[in-house]
Design goal:
4-stranded parallel β-sheet; 5-stranded parallel β-sheet; 23 strands; 13 helices; alpha/beta
C-alpha cells in the first residue's frame, strides 16, 4: 500500500503555500485570499501527464484526491486503452478484447481532468512545454511520463515489427496481435508444434509468457492432445517458476514422456537469436527448430516516447529517484510504470498503479512546498496456470540503501500444498482482483 492510500488530505490553502508557489509580492498584491476557488484554480499549477494507461490514469485520479485545485491534463494518443492484464485470456477465449477496453471518460468527468487525444512529438524541458502532432503546446509545472515499453527486434535476426504485425505476432501489447495469435492457435494442425520464446530480463509482466504457455497447454490438452509446446527461454529461472512448474506437472504431464510442455532454459539452448519466416524456423544458440506456430516475445526497453525525450540511460530504461519517481535526468519530470528503473519491483500493472499513487502524493507535496515522505510500494499479481488453477505473488517494497527492495519478509509466491481447493481459490481471487484493479484505475 502506498503512502497515499492511508492519507487524509487537507485541501486548505495556507498563505505559506501561496508564497512558495507564487511569491510574496504576488500574494500581497492580488488579494487572492478573497478570490473564489474558481478564480484560484485558473492560477493553480499545471501537471501534464503523457500516457493514459494504468500509470497515467491512476496518477491523475490520485493527484486529484491529493490536490482539488491543481490543473491536470492527460495527453493520450489512443481514444481507448486495452489492458495487458488478462489479454492472455483472450487468446484462448476466456475474455474478449471489449471486456479489456477502457477509455478516459470517467477520469475526465469525475476527477476534472482535461483529456487530449493526440500524439506527443516533443518536449522543451527548459521552457517546460510539450508539443503535440496537431501543433498544440501545453505548458507544465510538473510533467509525468508513463510511456510503456518498446521492443528490441534488432536482437533477433530476421524478426521485424512488420512480421510481428502480420504472421508472427508477439501479442505483448493487447490489440490486433492478440486476436491474430488466437486465430493461429485455433488453426494449428493436429499434432503440430508451437514455440513460445519469452524475453530476457527485465520485461513487462514477468509471469505473462508462462501463463500464456499454460493456456496453450490447456488448449492442446482439450482440443489438440498430440500437439506439443516448446518454451525456449533465455533465462535459467522465471517468476513464479516453482508453482508454475508444479501446475504443469499436475495438469500437463511436465517432466514426463507425454508432457505437453517442454521448457528449455538458456544454458540448454533456450535463447532464440533468429527467425526464418519463410520456413517457420527459429535459430537458437544450439541449432534450429521448426514449428507450426512461433510466438517470439521480444526483449524490451523503455517506451519510444521516453527514448525520444531523452529520459533513458545506457540500459535503455529510465533512472528515477526512488522516493518520488522523479527522473534522475530531467528535473520536474516523473516516469511511471514499465519504463522506469524500479529495481526489485517487477514491471507490472500493479507496480505502475502503486508508483502512480506515491508519485501523485510526492507531486502534490512538492507543489505545496512540502518535502515528500518516504515511499512504500506494493505489487500483487495473480496468474492462471489453467482456467481454474491460480498462482500468485505479492510483496511490499521500501527504499533501502538507495534501491527499491522487498520490505522484510513481505515477498512471497503461492505455497505448494496438497490441498486441491487452493489453486481453485487462487483462480477465483484472480478474477476478483482483476475486476477491482481496473476499477481503481479507470473508475
Amino acid at each position: 500500500m502506498s503512502q497515499l492510500e492511508n492519507k487524509t488530505f487537507d485541501s486548505k490553502i495556507t498563505r505559506r503555500d501561496l508564497v512558495k508557489i507564487f511569491g510574496a509580492t504576488a500574494v500581497a498584491g492580488t488579494g487572492i485570499f478573497g478570490a473564489s476557488s474558481k478564480a484560484f484554480a485558473k492560477s493553480a499549477a499545471h501537471v501534464v501527464v503523457l500516457g493514459g494507461g494504468v500509470g497515467g490514469s491512476t496518477f491523475a485520479k490520485y493527484l486529484r484526491f491529493a490536490d482539488p485545485d491543481v490543473k491536470i491534463t492527460i495527453i493520450e494518443q489512443e481514444p481507448e486503452y486495452i489492458t495487458c492484464l488478462r489479454s492472455n485470456d483472450v487468446i484462448v477465449g476466456m475474455h474478449t478484447l471489449d471486456e479489456l477496453t477502457f477509455n478516459l471518460d470517467t477520469i475526465r468527468s469525475k476527477y476534472n481532468v482535461n483529456v487530449v487525444i493526440d500524439k506527443v512529438v516533443g518536449a522543451d524541458f527548459d521552457t517546460k512545454t510539450v508539443t503535440t502532432a496537431k501543433g498544440d503546446k501545453f505548458s507544465y509545472d510538473k510533467l509525468v511520463v508513463s510511456p510503456g515499453i518498446d521492443f528490441k527486434f534488432e536482437d533477433y535476426e530476421g524478426y521485424t515489427a512488420e512480421l510481428a504485425a502480420t504472421d508472427f505476432p508477439h501479442a505483448y501489447k493487447a490489440g490486433p496481435q492478440t486476436l491474430k495469435l488466437r486465430e493461429q492457435l485455433l488453426a494449428m494442425r493436429q499434432g503440430g508444434t508451437a514455440i513460445i520464446s519469452p524475453p530476457q530480463n527485465p520485461f513487462r509482466c514477468p509471469p505473462g509468457p508462462y501463463e500464456r504457455a499454460s493456456f496453450f497447454a490447456e488448449y492442446f490438452k482439450n482440443h489438440n492432445p498430440t500437439a506439443k509446446l516448446i518454451v525456449l527461454d533465455p533465462k535459467e529461472r522465471f517468476t513464479k517458476d516453482i508453482p508454475f512448474k508444479k501446475a504443469w506437472e499436475r495438469l500437463y504431464g511436465f517432466k514426463t514422456e507425454n508432457s505437453i510442455i517442454e521448457w528449455v532454459p538458456g544454458s540448454e539452448g533456450g535463447r532464440v537469436i533468429g527467425l526464418d519466416a519463410a520456413t517457420k524456423t527459429v535459430e537458437t544458440d544450439t541449432g534450429e527448430i521448426k514449428a507450426d506456430l512461433i510466438n517470439i516475445i521480444p526483449n524490451q526497453r523503455a517506451g519510444v516516447l521516453a527514448q525520444k525525450l531523452g529520459l533513458t540511460n545506457r540500459s535503455g530504461w529510465c533512472p528515477i529517484k526512488r522516493n518520488t519517481m522523479e527522473s534522475e535526468i530531467q528535473e520536474s519530470v516523473y516516469v511511471l510504470g514499465d519504463s522506469s528503473i524500479a529495481d526489485a519491483m517487477p514491471k507490472s500493472g500493479y507496480s505502475a498503479n502503486s508508483q502512480a499513487k506515491v508519485c501523485a502524493q510526492a507531486v502534490a507535496d512538492t507543489l505545496k512546498g512540502k518535502t515528500p515522505g518516504t515511499a512504500i510500494y506494493s505489487n500483487v499479481c495473480y496468474s492462471l496456470a489453467g482456467e481454474n488453477y491460480g498462482v500468485s505473488i505479492a510483496a511490499i517494497y521500501e527504499v533501502k540503501d538507495g534501491l527499491i527492495q522487498p520490505k522484510g519478509k513481505s515477498a512471497g509466491v503461492s505455497p505448494i500444498t496438497d490441498k486441491p481447493a487452493q489453486p481453485i481459490l487462487e483462480a477465483v481471487y484472480q478474477k476478483n482482483w482483476q475486476r477491482e484493479f481496473v476499477k481503481d484505475v479507470f473508475s
